[in-house]
Design a protein that fits this description.
Strand content: under 5%
Number of helices: 13
Radius of gyration: 27 Å
Strand order of the largest sheet: 1-2
Structural class: mainly alpha
Oligomer: single chain
Number of strands: 2
Mean pLDDT: 77
Distance between the termini: 29 Å
């Protein structure tokens, strides 16, 4: 894939974004992280809109003798780039106005949509389809997609999980569990005022400087050298994987199910190789 991408870059013209821009400066604060998240979220609409219009323009360019459609394809590709990069820098352009300007000039109400649009859009009105529009994407109409999806919404953890026997005292395992739960409570207490009702505690562990201290504290607990039994036991309790744990879930006094993200990342930092050994890399195993 990388080799082919290099070949494409060397043999095809690439659209260059020359819109004036200024660099946004962010700091390692929760407020600035929220700004980035909001900027990215607000760009989702313009990213999708510009990409969809670009595909329609490409279709029109095959069917109508008007150079504007090819030019609009290039412009919309740049607008999609701008939408994606808006969180990192501010561009001297109003995206919504520019997209609406192009959309109005495309005369979609009269030209309508190519046939493949009804394939990729559920419940799309056939009255909005123009059967005379010819484009390569219309080949989708003739493809019969086999049903390869599982009947389950997600694959169960048991598909990937490897159970190892517990080779240390439960008391030591409970000590590790207690450290993780205590850390989670400390995170909640230190969440910036005004964000506690919007963001869960597990979203903050990467921002906490004492995360490394938690990892070191766990490493100080006297355990067997390979950690496999401990990690397997903790993961099982957090995700209720094995039949024995699931059947006794009401009797298990644990907060790990509320701290899954923290648990997995802590175990990964403590011993990466053995953490990964708790999961199969082949779902047929």
């Amino acid at each position: 894939m990388a080799s082919h991408a290099k070949w494409c870059c060397e043999n095809y013209l690439t659209i260059v974004n020359n819109i004036p821009k200024e660099q946004n400066v962010y700091h390692n604060t929760l407020k600035d992280y929220a700004k980035v998240d909001n900027a990215t979220a607000s760009s989702q609409m313009t990213i999708g809109e510009s990409s969809n219009l670009s595909q329609i323009c490409l279709t029109y360019s095959y069917n109508f003798d008007d150079d504007k459609y090819e030019k609009y394809c290039c412009i919309l590709a740049v607008l999609a780039q701008v939408s994606i990069d808006n969180a990192k820098r501010k561009f001297d352009i109003n995206l919504s106005e520019e997209i609406n300007r192009i959309k109005e000039d495309m005369n979609i109400k009269e030209n309508k949509y190519p046939s493949f649009w009804a394939t990729i859009r559920r419940d799309f009105k056939q009255s909005n389809i123009n059967k005379n529009l010819v484009c390569p994407m219309n080949c989708l109409e003739n493809i019969k997609f086999r049903n390869y999806r599982s009947d389950q919404s997600t694959l169960p953890m048991s598909t990937f999980f490897k159970k190892f026997s517990l080779d240390v005292q439960r008391k030591k395992c409970m000590k590790v569990e207690e450290l993780i739960s205590k850390y989670s409570l400390n995170v909640m207490k230190n969440i910036t005022e005004g964000y506690a009702d919007k963001i869960s505690d597990t979203d903050y562990f990467v921002l906490r400087s004492d995360f490394n201290d938690l990892v070191e504290d766990i490493r100080k607990v006297p355990l067997s050298k390979n950690y496999l039994g401990l990690m397997s036991w903790l993961i099982d309790r957090a995700f209720l994987i094995s039949p024995n744990i699931r059947s006794n879930k009401n009797n298990i006094d644990s907060q790990l199910d509320k701290n899954k993200t923290i648990l997995l990342n802590v175990l990964y930092q403590v011993n990466k190789e053995n953490f990964l050994a708790c999961f199969s890399n082949n779902i047929t195993n």
